[in-house]
Amino acid sequence: MAVARGTIHGIVGENGAGKSTLMSILYGFYQADRGEIRINGERVAIRHSDDAIAAGIGMVHQHFMLVKPFTVLENVILGAEEGASLQRSAAKARGILGELAETYGLEVDPDMVVGDLSVGLQQRVEILKALYRQAEILILDEPTGVLTPSEADHLFRILESLKAQGKTIIFITHKLREIMSITDTVSVMRRGAMTATHPTSEMSVTRLAELMVGRAVELRVDKTPARPGAEILSVRDLTVARNGTERLKSISFGIRAGEILGVAGVAGNGQSELLEVLWGTAAATAGEVLLKGAPLDVSRGGRAAERRRQGIGHVPEDRHRHGIIMPFGVWENASYGYHRSPSFTSGPFSLPGRMKDAARELIETFDVRPDDPLLKTANLSGGNQQKIVLGREIRQNPDLLLIGQPTRGVDIGAIEYIHREIVALRDQGKAILLVSVELDEILGLSDRVIVMFDGRISGERVIEETDENDLGMLMAGVDQREGKNVTASKMG
Amino acid sequence: MSQLPKWADSFLVPLLSVLLALVVSGLVVLAIGENPLTAVRVMITGAFGSTYNLGFTLFYFTNFVFTGLAVAVAFHAAQFNIGGEGQATFAGIGAALIGLSLGETHWLLVLPLGILVAFLFGAAWAAVPAYLQVRRGSHIVITTIMFNYIAAGLLVALLGNFLKPAGSAAPQSRTFDEGAHLPRLDEVLGWIGIEAQRMEGNIMFFFALAACAVVWLLLWRTHLGFEIRAYGHNEKAADYAGISGFRIVMLVMLLSGGLAGLMATNTVLGQQHSLVLGFVEGAGFTGIAVALMGRSHPFGVALAALLFGALYQGGAELAFEMPAIPSKMIVIIQALIILFVGAMENIVRIPLARIFMFVQQSRKA
Predict the structure, then answer these.
(1) Count of CB atoms within 10 A of residue B141's CB?
(2) Furthest C-alpha separation in chain A
(3) Can you list the domains of chain A with their CATH numbers?
(4) Which of A250, A256, A283, B80 pairs with B346 at a CA distance of 20 to 30 A?
């Protein structure tokens, strides 16, 4: 791979294609077995991140490497202090930060505590850190995953100005639209190899997707208009407080049978709390939830088993931490959560034979690969793990399915499949609550959308009457059609 | 990353680690000025050389199976119970109450009651730290170890003030009457017509083997075991699946304490026939090493308990036969085994993984 100076070079590829490994080698976390890295024609040996920094490489990680209780200034000079006097390097850094802010439009108050900053600003601090260390090459790993559309736009403007100043940027993402809009050149990785490098102007989203997966993919979800039936779930004035702060502020909505309700919003605006309360693993402080007209106990946590019995299924947002037990076999995870159901038990004993049969069926129905129920779940790809979770919940035939981030960390080929399954479930007359931070996913799958901002519903839309811009504004808390849609939060 | 095949991971790595520990122990023996090979020979014959010696090895084996299983079971729910010592001590008080009061009946009555009461006493002693852990967040490592001291103090107080026969200076209860002595292994062998020399192990040996099977069944063949293992791997995922953490931790710790308590049945009713100060003699802590070495698997625990049983018995013979080697040598060996098996496993694992990778690659080529 070659990257030209002063360009923005995009790298795309499915999960596990080797993008992160490549970047880790560039930044000195891993060592390459063979091959060499040249910067400005000169061979460099990068054994440690110090070498990378010295070579002018800066990295903005997907998960920020910041000390939250420290101020912006302290974070920037951390590890790059000069001499014994902190004050002197702080004063110097303050000056440099001022210049950087002016040159690149990277304004951040240097005395703010990082933990109090928004995610977008924290990312800015990461970029400042790299620039302070005189990085000429900036690597950004999935930088927009946590940003609102407008924050992402701002980031792109910063990247443009960095480019104008002659910096080189390597931009890793799985969002093809971003590649198209910001990069000059794009490289596609597949199964650990760089399969293609092209000027972005010669590419299209469909062509890129094909290159990534190795076959033609259907990016749009085919679905007929919804035919909503009776109301399955009804949420009224639900409030959730955690550690004294209200995470959900009196929200109300309903979902009907045969309908997908999308919940859009930037991560951390109350969606996770909503899922937890509906699923019975967290307590609500006020409000009520009705399932098919009967109230659910939302006053306490630890009610997940009860929810399953009442006909709710749940594909959790973070499947690694919640949905499956990684070291367990596929067959054990295929009935996890339903392991006490009569079909898998006989008295106190579980029936491994029946569990394995069920796992084989699931593997076949949901095309899980490899098709071995005895494999350790951790050895499967993210997409196949997600198929196990989704398949497991769907097979229990729930009336209501809660789905959080169904395609997070899932490769394109599997996304296509998972989306089709969700729509098929809707067509069987199930009610589906879909929480996703991916606007494309919300727009492609939902019949109706509510947008969450700061624990409230900032707007509700029928899918035909909205678009990315409209939802993007709602995600930032601005309703452009004030008055047209009356949402519950405004009534309360 | 390179991975080892399962059999190598569960057998080869611990085996090589133990060998490494023994080699280092040999160096210590050499430093004392004795011949390590002679020492090994003395230890092996000391542990297995005669029926009499074997009897002692099996007696220690039984203790370590119970305390090892106690630690292993708790490990599966991610609870580190290092209070086996105290749980066994408290259970000993229960076992002694049975021994003292039912001495004029028959062992057929004493055996089930001795097992039941010791189990309940051990479980009760573990219940308090378990409850404090799940409801109050007091760390179970801290509370269980503190409960060891409380149990030890309680035993001193009981022996000194109530159980010590009048006029006796020794801190132990009176000897139980014949009816409360559990049958020794040689007596058990006698029932099936095998004449044997006196063997110090007793009928609890068979219960130790049964306990291994029961724990295995529980963990891998019941839905409760499934939940215990799920909780141990990932507490949050257990909550998602509707598994109550409170229930799992309480049940596991009660079982763990109860198993540790059975060690007291073996020692108090089966061998010493009286309640003696400090009768647990570190078996609770050895259980941690046994569980670590046995990979928290019941069969691994049985194998590790046999090794430690042999080390204890062989070590005692060693101190007798080669007086230059202090009896504390066994503690050094034990410590080295814990160090190599528990803490420094990668010394063996990483080179071994490289060898396996190399073999695999050359086989492909």
Answers:
(1) 15
(2) 72
(3) 8-213 (3.40.50.300), 231-491 (3.40.50.300)
(4) B80
pTM: 0.83
Angle subtended by helix axes B36-48 and B13-32, to nearest 10: 120
A250 conformational bin, left if phi > 0, alpha if psi -120 to 50, beta if neither: left
Domain boundaries, chain B: 59-297
The DSSP annotation for A91-149 comes to: HHHHHHHHHHHHHHT----TTSBGGGS-HHHHHHHHHHHHHHTT-SEEEEESTTTTS-H
Judged by CB atoms closer than 8 Å, whether chains meet at B242 and A308 is answered as yes
CB contact under 8 A, B229 and A306: no
CA nearest A306 in B: which residue? B242
Q: Is A339 on the interface with B (CB under 8 A)?
A: yes
What one-letter code names the amino acid at B185? L
Disruptive mutation site among A275, A278, A325, A331 for chain B (greatest number of B CBs within 10 Å): A325
Which of residues 240 through 299 in chain A touch B, CB cutoff 8 A? 279-281
Tell me, what's the ipTM?
Answer: 0.83
Q: Which residues of A touch B226 (CB under 8 A)?
A: 332, 339, 350
Whether residues B222 and A323 touch (CB distance < 8 A) is answered with no
> From the CA of B237, how many Å to the nearest CA of chain A?
4
With contact defined as beta carbons under 8 Å apart, do A429 and A241 qualify? no
Amino acid at A306: E
Rounded distance between C-alpha atoms, residue B233 and residue B227, angstroms:
10
| Interval B205-248: pLDDT, tens | 999 999 999 999 999 999 999 999 999 999 999 999 999 999 99
Mean per-residue pLDDT over chain B, rounded = 92
In the numeric block, the tokens 């007086």 are attached to B323
| pLDDT tens per residue, range B159-180 | 988 888 888 888 899 999 999 9
Is residue B214 within 8 angstroms of chain A, CB to CB? no
B242: nearest CB among A305, A344, A352? A305
Determine the Cα–Cα distance for residues B119 and B103; give it in Å rounded to an integer.
19
Q: Considering only the beta carbons, identify the residue of A281, A301, A349 that sits closest to B222.
A: A349
Strands A259-264 and A448-453: parallel
Residue among A314, A337, A350 whose CB faces B221 most closely: A350
Measured in residues, chain A has a length of 492
